[in-house]
Amino acid sequence: MTPQTESHIVPEISSQVRLPDYCIGIFKSCLTKSALKKAIKKQRIKVNGEIASTATYIKGGENITITLPEETKPTKKLIFPIQVLFEDEYLAVINKPAGILVSGNSFMTITNALEQNLKKSILEDSAKLQPVHRLDYATTGVLLIGKTSSSIRMLNKMFEDKQVKKIYYAISIGKMAKSGEINNDIDNKKAITNYTVKESVQSERFEKLNLVKLEPKTGRRHQLRKHLSSVGNPILGDRDYGIDGLILKGKGLYLHAYSLEFIHPFSNQPIHVSANLPEKFKKIFPDIKDLF
To answer: Of 88, 125, 136, 290, which is the active-site residue?
Structure first.
């Protein structure tokens, strides 16, 4: 397998920045921050000929090289239709179904299915179609895709700078205050989620089920699931953070990424994209359309 190497000379920059933050969107073979961190961990990135780490700072003038094994394309093509909610030459938004990974080493991933569902950008810096954030395997809903190197870089920066407003809906278990803020740290890092209960119904097994609007102010791993569990109201169907004896099996996780709102990084137009709640939500809350 022939390795492929890309190099980049850092221009003059106003202030030093960590290597993974600087390199987002620069190397076509490694466009996202998570991919860069993986390459750094495997010692595939060098700065001025020296193996780099995530703690390496870029100050300007450095020669950064990345060497990766040649990508092997799968011998078979993944046939997996996905609903496209928005698309232009720079980015797209899709509706992710449950039960599929966003990315990873598996054949069955959203990343592998993008090529057949989206149009490749005709712009000069067109890149491999790339999700710019993550949703859990069991979570449904809106997922933002970058189509060019520059858009991937800018969208990543917008997420880091909290310039993308995300709204989720979940069905939680048990009595719950009408609204509030959950600010319990996750992995020793600050984590904040605002919630509003839109409607509640009585349940013989779960006492109460609540349709909850969730607005995460930070982006920690499993934040919404951990936060609702921490206040005694785990998400229905959550096998990892649920309450023993109250795990609903066979119906999946009742967590849905409902909408994304942001300013388009190139057209400067406001973008607001939403994905309808799954049918399984409507079976518990049949009047759901009246709540929006």
So the answer is: 136
